[in-house]
User: Fold this.
Amino acid sequence: MSGITRQLADFIATSRWNDVPQEVRHEGARAVLNWLGCAIAGCRDDTVERLLATLREFAGKPQATLLGRGERLDALSAACINGTASNRLDFDDTHLRTVIHPTVPVAAALLALAEHRPLTGAEFLHAFVLGIDAECRVGNAISPGHYEHGWHITATCGVLGAAVACGRALKIDAQRMGWALGIAATQASGLMATLGTMCKSYNMGHAARSGLASALLAANGYTSSERGLEAARGFLNVLAARSEPREITRELGLRWELMQNAYKPYPCGIVIHPVIDGCLDLRAAHRIDPVAVAKVEIAIPPLAEQLCGRKAPRDSLEGKLSLYHSAAVALLDGEAGVVQYTDARVTDPRVIAIRDRVVVSTDPALGNDQARVRISLASGVAHETFVERARGSLGRPLTDAELEAKFRSLASAELATREIDTLVEQCWSLERQPDAAVLARGSVAAGARAAESRCNSR
Amino acid sequence: MSGITRQLADFIATSRWNDVPQEVRHEGARAVLNWLGCAIAGCRDDTVERLLATLREFAGKPQATLLGRGERLDALSAACINGTASNRLDFDDTHLRTVIHPTVPVAAALLALAEHRPLTGAEFLHAFVLGIDAECRVGNAISPGHYEHGWHITATCGVLGAAVACGRALKIDAQRMGWALGIAATQASGLMATLGTMCKSYNMGHAARSGLASALLAANGYTSSERGLEAARGFLNVLAARSEPREITRELGLRWELMQNAYKPYPCGIVIHPVIDGCLDLRAAHRIDPVAVAKVEIAIPPLAEQLCGRKAPRDSLEGKLSLYHSAAVALLDGEAGVVQYTDARVTDPRVIAIRDRVVVSTDPALGNDQARVRISLASGVAHETFVERARGSLGRPLTDAELEAKFRSLASAELATREIDTLVEQCWSLERQPDAAVLARGSVAAGARAAESRCNSR
Assistant:
């Protein structure tokens, strides 16, 4: 009986596209659309500029596109930068059981590879779905202890997902897939201590890069442990106090973790979302004047307070992890979009004035997509609501139309409407596209693409 | 009172070369000489060839030299490949208290950087000594639990040492040094499950690359946690069940961990060394005919059995971690050098015949540099010895002359005697060299250098 690593590797290496149900394929397109919007809208953030300024000097040939921007670097560097950019806005997807943001590391690695070693849209989607599955199954096996212990689970599991997706795209056999998992496992890293700093999104970029490198090395016969996951001193035992290895292989090919994926309506920590829902609902229902708000009482589960209990965030990065800022800005602006999480908004005295009136308490009986919000006005009147299922949660998912609207809003930062129309269509029809790299090219405005092309031909 | 990370960062950023004692400077030269020999002799191993074949396609401008070989890649890729190559023979140094092999990740990153951003020999040595100190101090803080748990400690602590050395070389201030430590901490990775595979040495190369990237990012203002080591979800708490943070800052600048560094006389796991000493001593003292050996009884401490208990190694990589192969080959050949650990020797039936007569037992009373060896001959006669201090241990260190002889033997794989003479002289006088990169250039035979230069000018 072969071990868990080999069983997983066998499944990935031998999976057929016809075995992937239509609903899973469609969820793949949804995930890619959502991710691409995040990558485009995040592409000029300072976190990305500084990373590019650092890596450019060391980067190789123009093999892959920086999404939204148009510069072309070697595929490993592009994977790193696109991974970082697409997580920067905290607007990417979430596998709710593990709190993994699954698409970023997998798609950033795979699309960079697809520009260098052409893949059809179907090959891309197939590799993508398998990468997400492996990533989230390993996450299931070590949750919740691994994340609670302080591991940035999207990075630690993301490197595995990226390796699997890229290994599949490179058509490596099961033995090499096992090595790819072993090479990725030994590069698994990422500390929660970096949350609220630029380094948080870099963790994802680093995972994407390392995962792609793992697949490329394995394809070249680079050996690693063949039991990288389950070995006594392998991933599961070293990175988790307790693990349930069977989660990795149970119902392989029958149950697809991608179907447990959720898409955010707000660009901030997902545990904040029910609070924003509650504030927006109360504001609209009672036409609340933000200036008249005397007190905002919020009850949330303990995890939300742990992750997002920052009372006085200093900038955009910290604001995205602040229940206080999020509640305040939702009440003040009546929305919680990209604009509500800029440095300027986080330090705006009008936002801070309301933020200081927010009081948070924890209630272990609440689910992670639930919250109670009570708003007391200066007049003495109070309004209260219970959010049973946050928008965007599995019980109340964003529709295709809502996802498309989110994409259009995000992509408009770089692209004209006509360009967005084309890209949306290419995402929805990805399965039938002859070349998956069309997504990378289409993420860049025609003008920027032409400029980059002139630059490279010099 | 600032935290441990900041205290360490302050020390590194403000250290003066004049504060580094002469004996520490000399130990720096010894460590660099030993390391450079290992890098040269390991440079054409299959582990390196496959890594280069993979990375070359993605690598950037010719900024730094592949030691011994002469190809030039971008500094990050060169750091990765040289880090991998210099550990491949298991002949590099050891900080005995932690079993960290400290020089590989630090020197591989720093020398690659020095070719791209020139450093004097003194600046190089200063950054090197500080990097080793930070790396081993963090190792002290989490030993022995971290390593026992399954972490490849040279990689997990090596990325920190590389970041510190490169940050110092880039002359970043204390705040950015703190970020560099935070960026490195979140990239710390490496699983013991990879031992005995190509991936083992890649862990070091990956650490060197990631550490250099951390310093470059921090120099460009890339933020990370300022408490990357001691934060609740930082390096110490996440990667170790127990830690003693004060080990990191106690007697900073008064006690230098480089003085606890040892150099190997044999290219294999260091816990095997006393066994080899015992076999060689008995063989010489009693003129033992290997064919007449009926039984070899070895007593070693439990750690040695855990790490190197492989009874039937299949190749060079496994042979280097086998007490059985090592004892057999030492008895058969009367030496244990690079030649004794090739694939061919590990699978040689004559070696295997003796290997199968080796019996290992553990004795917790023995130190990690101790062993008892008893050899019974077919005639019924038996000889026994107790190795109290292995050659190359701190109690019986290799002399400068022995280190130089080791270097000459290793470097002769690529260089002519005249070239070796020059390089040895440059290592010993590194403190007075105007350009540290002379070591990288000097590691390559004149002919190979010329060929690479023609190639790059095309």
